[in-house]
Amino acid sequence: xxxxxxxxxxxxxQLARExxxxxxxxxxxxxLRLLADIAREPMFLLLxxxxxxxxxxxxxxxxxxxxxxxxxxxxITFVQxxxxxxxxxxxxxxxxxxxxxxxxxKTRKVPGRELVCGDIVLLAEGDRVPADMDLLAAANLxxxxxxxxxxxxxxxxxxxxxxxxxxxxxxxxxxxxHDEQEAGSDNTDRxxxxxxxxxxxxxxxxxxxxxxxxxxxxxxxLEGLGGEDTPIQNETRKVVKRVAIIGLLLAAGxxxxxxxxxxxxxxxxxxxLTLAMAILPEELPVVLTLFLGLGAWRLAREQVLARSIPxxxxxxxxxxLCVDKTGTLTANRMAVRRLxxxxxxxxxxxxxxxxxxxxxxxxxxxAVLASHRRAFDPMEAAIGxxxxxxxxxxxxxxxxxxxVDDYPLSPEMLAMSRxxxxxxxxxxxxxxxxxxxxxxxxxHMDATRHAAVATQVALMASAGLRVLGVARxxxxxxxxxxxxxxxxxEFLGLIAxxxxxxxxxxxxxxxxxxxxxxxxxxxxxxxxxxxxxARQAGLNTESGPPITGTELATLSEAELDxxxxxxxxxxxxxxxxxxxxxxxxRARGEVVAMTGDGVNDAPALKAAHIGVAMGARGTxxxxxxxxxxxxxxxFTALVTAVRYGRRVFANLRKAIVFVIAVHVPIVxxxxxxxxxxxxxxxxxxxxxxxxxxxxxxCSVVFEAEPLEPDAMxxxxxxxxxxxxxxxxxxxxxxxxxxxxxxxxxxxALTRAFSGSDEVARALTFSVLVLSNLGLIYANRSWxxxxxxxxxxxxxxxxxxxxxxxxxxxxxPTFLWMALATLSLLAIVLAVPAVRALFSFAxxxxxxxxxxxxxxxxxLVWFEAVKWGLRPxxxxxx
Length: 877
Known about the structure:
By secondary structure, the chain is of the alpha+beta class. It has 29 helices and 22 strands.
């Protein structure tokens, strides 16, 4: 009975009864758990302690406002963390595996979680089995069941006489006897969820899903996925810990000094807690989490799925991109371009709609027979489509022939053969196709014929065509030989296919060159084909000749190291040799990004600093081994990912400079007034107000700044480059120290002019808030004056839309944040009740105007520091 699979209605009903095909995962934190985690943050504990001291001092209004601010900041943090969790859930949904199912007689891809019992699933080499299934059809199928059985040797699977395929067309209930069947037992006709197809193809009927599968019964929860810390996060945690320890020691010393000098121990404790709040850089972990999370989200919008957050961090340091040809540099839409036999030839570009000559029928006929009828490979699909078009209405298409067996492609023999039985012939027909040299070897051709074929192969390959040889044989014996060499093959001819370079690839490769990134092609193609595609794509083909897989096998590590310096094309490379190339590049100190799509690419993807899997044509195991998944298999998406990686790191450095520069005056204004005998300048409520500015500024405004155009014309950063390096610290300390000196001057002059501590405090605080906005404005770019930074946050680039400079152009996020900050500051100064809570008095209009002048003076200082510490030519900002 012909298998048609379930109907969509049956599938929906089954899904409603059985539930999704997924294992139970750790649930997101509940609202109470999230609030409890936030409440345990050191900053909030300090705020609560300050509120309690205000209550003891009898300042109930101050205490209530302080605690009210606590809830506002906690609310903001809560919303941010909830958004982060939802984003991670969305990313997990995007990375969930897909299954190719047969429903209502048509194949379609569905999320693995939507599979139900009775579904017919098609499997191919490299797929993860999405559910427990009984086999309905299998060809050379072997499955790695080590994750269930512990046995490392793949298990051969085949149909048994007892297999019932008639049930394929109808839904099946949950298999009650399924519990008795496990991986590793004698179940050659069953495959299990989570195992890996290492060879062959199959069709199976789902018998168990989710918790009822073999994996579901013994599998562990997926909790902890995505919780991996990055090197920058580890560095930041150490910095925060050290600064917190120093801050607490200084706070204790300040509280002690205040209490001893004034005898007011409660106010001394309050001053100490205020200093602790001022020093503690609690926003740094928030900034990092949000930067990396939003970076992954932005990449997902560009069709790049970041399965590992550290990949986002390392992208900006990439120095070598090892890329496949097919589907990455080319369109992966193969089509038969030429056919050739010793007697005739055909070129689709010249033949137009002319019929195929009789002399060429056989070569195309046996190329079709040597391919899978349900083709997954683009070349086989193209050959099948050409056969249907060019051999239509002839006797050369054999829908009634039966496949007896096949000999798959192997590293030892780069050719495959399929054995067919015709209804009207006793002898079996064997069709073979593969690398021309392998087909020539199978046909045992003499030197003269071999040379003629080699000349034609070189001619086609030089045009960028993928060339395959085609041969046939017949066998009257009942028993098939052990290997392809035992057949008496007859050479039929050559078939050449083309896969054009994607139109956007040359520009993307040129951008990589300008960014100091080498692009290296690693392919299984013929050297001439690889060189032709490399020239069209814009790769460097003149520095050194291509290295073939055969030559690579003979090179020592030292010889390979020398050749890597000027080689950009590696062809006829076996999958296992990709691992050696990645390791060799790493040994040279390169930061390697590697693309791959097959089962055997997984070790190389794991070995690379950044493994990149193909989302559309890649296998599940390649995607699991990769850090990034290109959802549309587009090379330009990989270049975009590198650009985003540089953007994340560059903007993080700007945010860190801002954090340092802001904290210097806050710390200084908490300590120096006590040492100078002045009244307290900053109180906990002031620190809280500033926190409402600092956190959004760091985590949202700087993250939203686009990459400066010249950043992709700079060499990659070193992989060991640190966020808190000398350049960042010096820039932040200089900007902060100048602002601190200005604020002390503002306080002293205003106090002397007005005779009021409250007026001086209000004006100093206002200048500090305005200067914080100036800090953001100045640090958007480190190599251009702020007034010349365009509306994209970058200088003008000819030919690039949206980068024409506008006076003081700003990203919308900064504009909204600045507007909100100025509005809050105006409320604090204008509303008497709020002004009293801040211990302010209303400054006169003249003083406010002078304060605005001081804020502008701070901006001049920030620009002067930028100019004095501007990056030298050839270094990234």
